[in-house]
Amino acid sequence: xxxxxxxxxxxxxxxxxxxxxxxxxxxxxxxxxxxxxxxxxxxxxxxxxxxxxxxxxxxxxxxxxxxxxxxxxxxxxxxxxxxxxxxxxxxxxxxxxxxxxxxxxxxxxxxxxxxxxxxxxxxxxxxxxxxxxxxxxxxxxxxxxxxxxxxxxxxxxxxxxxxxxxxxxxxxxxxxxxxxxxxxxxxxxxxxxxxxxxxxxxxxxxxxxxxxxxxxxxxxxxxxxxxxxxxxxxxxxxxxxxxxxxxxxxxxxxxxxxxxxxxxxxxxxxxxxxxxxxxxxxxxxxxxxxxxxxxxxxxxxxxxxxxxxxxxxxxxxxxxxxxxxxxxxxxxxxxxxxxxxxxxxxxxxxxxxxxxxxxxxxxxxxxxxxxxxxxxxxxxxxxxxxxxxxxxxxxxxxxxxxxxxxxxxxxxxxxxxxxxxxxxxxxxxxxxxxxxxxxxxxxxxxxxxxxxxxxxxxxxxxxxxxxxxxxxxxxxxxxxxxxxxxxxxxxxxxxxxxxxxxxxxxxxxxxxxxxxxxxxxxxxxxxxxxxxxxxxxxxxxxxxxxxxxxxxxxxxxxxxxxxxxxxxxxxxxxxxxxxxxxxx
Length: 584
Ligand code: PEP
Ligand code: MG
Description:
Belongs to the PEP-utilizing enzyme family. The chain is about 50% helix and about 15% strand. The chain is built from 23 helices and 16 strands. The protein is globular, with a radius of gyration of 25 Å. The chain starts with 8 loop residues before the first strand and ends with a helix.
């Protein structure tokens, strides 16, 4: 008897990145990288060696293809890592180690796990940081070979046709790789919050994303059709014809809205009563700069430079960084480009920086971001030199992440001034003035905004971290979503304090966390006098559409009313009602 085909299995997850998508489910899962004690090496060592040799051939093909695709989309610097991995996959230390494990009676998988982990441990024990950092690459290559041997899927081999990727969790570098996968229409995950790094990248790739889903085999059958709505977090697996046709109507509507918004991208970003707000884009590489202009953005409020440092084994040198910063500055000139100094650590893992820091019990409260730069001035100086040299090519603003005290700003400024003098003495052209600003993303910085404002040229509020640190809620954990509340009265007070501190000292105040692209929050940010809001480029036209409908006095009256409210949910309801009155 045939089992009746199921239809319209509706699941509700957490919206990560907006948009509608239809596709076939493509399940990517990893087999644990550990020995199982099984396998048939004892009976057929030659067969196991042959399997391992075929796995290596396939790994080399994959790595070559990845190297090429990455070169085209992200540039040669990012592609070099895959060249290095090809050498490692052929290294006699690995190949002979596995062969001898097989001859001792292990399966190819177990021999591979044992050899890889032993090599990794040897490299980790070396005193030279360069070699210590190779440990992560050895593990990566071993895991690739293991996946091929065990027949599990991976991101580099996704089908070309429309697919909805179902995966437990994505690392930021995996999400960056998705940009090269033209068949991926959306991403469904179990883990990850709306302000996790991969969610931010999905938004900039304009890929719908939903997390918090139960990725059970009976629900997410590979090859079955599914629909996803990244705005509501709804997924429909095996949609009926009727559901599908209604969904396609909505997709067409979405396209029409996109075209309408595109038509308005040149309109000045200001309220009905003429109050201007800069709508800027967040970027992760110079390649993203043109997307900001295409969306009507008039600046970059956050260039997350850590992506230049990820997915490789050594930091980019001064010249490579200089080229990247210059490219972004030239593309945007005369508009401002705010380049954030290295923000490694916490959710942004950079293996060789982790090597410098060592193991920490609480990396989110650890030696990360500006802290690690101040402790390792060589790393910081290289970046500052590249920035100062690039300043001659556009309108640069330098921004320091995770500032919690005044002394950090002073120390960073001293270093910057030294570097500027050095660059000028060496005959490098540099900008007359390079504004130095800070991210306000630790509560202490918001509380001390009036003092900090005397030390800097601008503030930009990083709400993703500010909310996390104010409410003690992990921004990546989807189970804590009801606690992670941008409209929590305590968060709003800090936003107001920051804006007041900035205004009193006459410095600019902006926002570059995800809240900057939230249309519900916009009336409050207008009322508080935020000068610029920086978001994923794709959000700019949407936010502009809302901005054009607002007027500042009504926003200010709304803020007065909201200050008396006790809960984030009451505030959210009030903002939603206000949005309706403005005609959305
Ligand atoms: C933030 O914390 O709000 C921010 C913009 O920085 P990131 O998301 O890169 O931590
Ligand atoms: Mg942050």
